[in-house]
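Case study 2.
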Amino acid sequence: MYDLDVEKKGKRPSWDAAGVRALRQHLRLTQQELADELGTRQQTISEWERGLYCPRGASARLLTLVAERADFAYEAAPGEGEEKDAL
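Prediction:
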């Protein structure tokens, strides 16, 4: 699960593409709606979800606050570079 309490321990959670997308879907928002809520552009949300950039600073803190208020937790999916077991 995504550990939102790490911020309270002095560490900030890092938001990856899967986390941003999962949060947006949990909130049942479009990219534009989430962008409006965070005061950013839809293109920025798209770039985060595609892994081109990661939210930093105030944006990461805002995502964490939104996630906490929405009781959001997710389990990160395996990375694209990880090998899958052959059947």
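Helices lie at 17-27, 31-38, 42-49, 57-69.
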